[in-house]
Recover the amino acids of this structure.
């Protein structure tokens, strides 16, 4: 890791230089209360003061909600053509928890099998992170996601009249030397950065204690009453999955031409919280009710990948809490599990 500083007076030029060289996707203000990541054409379009975006930017770019995978023709021979649209892109201004969410997807789509559609896009994506403002529901610091150790080319931290910049990759070093007036960090800058990081950790209002959750969850897993109580207002809408930076389930669909001469195979985001997710041929549903689906979602987020990868598959972004019309809240439910065990 290399450490540099960028004076704020040079920041606008840096961003505009990037825009002239890359397709840059950055946070934009959509309405009074809403930001989202979109391609930008000038520095002025960007608004880094966002607290959250409805959809996680890296997931939206690397694993689109609807993606064509292959086309095929059926004649004397069957011909299959892979459809994989990838291009050089730069994601600017993404927060640490969303970088950690992307790091999780990187592991999912490159472990056990290589998902070419995802990985091709990922290889061509440059990432510049920033210490974004956590929203009121953000509990990233409780799951160790408020800080990104990897997954970015550059990461910017505001230390007053300049940014302290961590350079994470060779591509990041090239970006810094080509597009900005980056200087070596001095001892004073390192001290300012340490102070800033201490202050930054205090911006996370929600603290969740996950100690023993792993063990406690198994103790309460069979307690039907508890899960029915926690899931009782769930509409099975699936919003919590769709907004989640780490949810990766998808369905594959065939759109076949009416003459059966060929078709397109595509994938769409799926949701483990909707009623037909566990439905199989013959009409049996492995996850027939809301309570069953909710506890399985929590198992996936907070237990399964602790066993598989040694990490939660929840980065604490709080999006599912804010998206849920039924006010089902993952961090309150973590506490509910703890309370149930202590009764
Ligand atoms: S928990 Fe909330 S967001 Fe998720 S499916 Fe149920 S109602 Fe929808
Ligand atoms: S489960 Fe909720 S809080 Fe955790 S990463 Fe997904 S959307 Fe964010």
């Amino acid at each position: 890791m290399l450490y540099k500083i960028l004076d704020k007076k040079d920041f606008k030029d840096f961003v505009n230089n990037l825009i002239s060289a890359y397709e840059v996707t950055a946070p934009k203000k959509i309405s009074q209360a809403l930001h989202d990541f979109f391609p930008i054409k000038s520095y002025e379009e960007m608004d880094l003061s966002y607290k959250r975006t409805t959809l996680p930017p890296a997931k939206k770019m690397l694993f689109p909600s609807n993606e064509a995978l292959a086309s095929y023709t059926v004649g004397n021979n069957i011909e299959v053509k892979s459809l994989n649209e990838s291009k050089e892109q730069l994601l600017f201004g993404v927060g640490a928890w969303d970088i950690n969410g992307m790091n999780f997807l990187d592991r999912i789509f490159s472990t056990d099998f290589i998902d070419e559609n995802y990985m091709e896009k990922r290889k061509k994506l440059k990432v510049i992170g920033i210490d974004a403002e956590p929203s009121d529901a953000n509990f990233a610091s409780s799951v160790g996601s408020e800080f990104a150790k990897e997954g970015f080319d550059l990461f910017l931290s505001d230390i007053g009249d300049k940014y302290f910049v961590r350079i994470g990759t060779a591509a990041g070093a090239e970006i810094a030397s080509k597009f900005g007036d980056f200087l070596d960090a001095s001892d004073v800058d390192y001290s300012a950065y340490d102070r800033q990081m201490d202050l930054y950790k205090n911006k996370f209002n929600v603290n969740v204690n996950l100690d023993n959750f792993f063990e406690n969850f198994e103790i309460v897993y069979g307690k039907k009453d508890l899960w029915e109580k926690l899931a009782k207002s769930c509409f099975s809408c699936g919003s919590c999955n769709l907004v989640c930076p780490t949810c990766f389930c998808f369905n594959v669909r065939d759109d076949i031409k009416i003459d059966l001469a060929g078709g397109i195979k595509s994938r769409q985001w799926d949701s483990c919280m909707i009623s037909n997710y566990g439905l199989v041929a013959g009409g049996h549903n492995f996850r027939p009710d809301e309570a069953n689906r909710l506890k399985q979602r929590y198992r996936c987020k907070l237990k399964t990948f602790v066993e598989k990868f040694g990490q939660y598959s929840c980065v604490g972004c709080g999006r599912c809490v804010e998206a849920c019309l039924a006010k089902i809240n993952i961090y309150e439910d973590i506490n509910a599990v703890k309370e149930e065990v202590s009764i």
Q: What stands out?
A: The chain has two domains: 2-64+80-201, 213-340. The chain has a mean pLDDT of 95. Residues 265 and 307 are 33 Å apart (CA to CA). The longest strand covers residues 23-31.
